[in-house]
Amino acid sequence: MLVSAKDMLQKAKAGKYAVGQFNINNLEWTKAVLAAAQENNSPVILGVSEGAGKYMTGYKTIVGMVNGMLEEMNITVPVALHLDHGSFEGCMKCIEAGFSSVMFDGSHYPIEENIAKTTELVKICNEKGLSLEAEVGSIGGEEDGVVGAGECADPEECKMIADLGVTMLAAGIGNIHGKYPDNWAGLSFETLDAIQKLTGDMPLVLHGGTGIPEEMIQQAISLGVAKINVNTECQVVFAEATRKYIEAGKDLQGKGFDPRKLLAPGTDAIKATVVEKMKLFGSVGKA
Ligand code: G3H
Ligand code: ZN
Asked: Which residues are noted in the entry as Zn(2+) 1-binding (predicted)?
């Protein structure tokens, strides 16, 4: 059964580790992430962007697929199905479709409007038992059409949003979606420290998890990050493994063109990446 992300993130914050959110795109992605979580006894969050939601034909299809897999793969670890960078309307659709968690990304609105819309969603999510992520500041780069300037969050604004009763808070601290440029200035731990001091027990979320050096991940966790989002890295390893299989001509041999064979190396590569991240984030054995 899908669960809200609330318990797993509060435990992670208290235990000084982070739960990974891994974005999914199809059946192979979902199967790989769930298998990695179950085999490593780790809680996990399946992230779905609005673009990936459309690609998979809609939120109800995703809920059906994930619930089926939880049962037929005998998944017993806590799993949350979470809308990533959602609009207000997207959140409403996911709540109705059966997601267990949503992110309302109101970071591009003036703070008053972000507060007003987040307040409304806090009420609805509380009534329905879903977890809610809000965002302040912005994540640089682009993910599925969501573009951010990358400005660091104002800690006072973070406190205002946290005080509304959201479950988790994403704050821009110099993090970027996609690959980090060579001249990247790194995460602003000064900003993160100020946010954590003002928001207390609130689990903080680090977006743009692809390519952040390990020591920065550890430092972020020590300063209150309890959820880390990873998307691009799984896409890259999937593409690399699939390319290798095709370039080796394996798709032309025997029944190598069978999609179940063609997609297997990429699926295994996603699973290996997810396991690596779970170890780095410290969530292994925490289910
Ligand atoms: O919302 C999802 C993420 O923040 C993932 O970022 O693609 O850089 O790993 P990433
Ligand atoms: Zn993100």
From this structure: 85, 177, 207
By DSSP bridging, strand 141-143 and strand 146-148 are antiparallel
Is pLDDT at 104 greater than 90 in this prediction? yes
Do the Cβ atoms of 22 and 5 come closer than 8 Å? Answer: no
Report the separation in Å between the CA atom of 208 and the middle of ligand 2, taken as the mean of its atom positions: 6
Q: Which domains, and CATH codes, for the chain?
A: 6-281 (3.20.20.70)
Ranges assigned E (strand) in 105-258:
131-136, 141-143, 146-148, 168-171, 204-206, 225-230
Does residue 169 contact residue 133 with C-beta atoms inside 8 Å?
yes
16 alpha carbon to ligand 2 midpoint, in Å?
Answer: 21
Contact present, 265 and 241 (Cβ < 8 Å): yes
State the amino acid at position 232 in one-letter form.
T
Tell me what ipTM this predicted complex has: 0.99
Report pLDDT for 143.
80
Q: Which residues pair with 230 in a beta bridge?
A: 22
pTM for the whole thing?
0.97
Which backbone phi and psi does 260 adopt, to 5 degrees?
Answer: -70, -25
Does 227 contact ligand 1 (Cβ within 6 A)? no
State how far the Cα of 172 lies from the Cα of 151, in Å rounded to an integer: 6
pLDDT over threshold 90, residue 198: yes
Can you list the pairs that 254-263 forms with residues at least 24 positions away whose Cβ atoms lie under 8 Å? 263/28
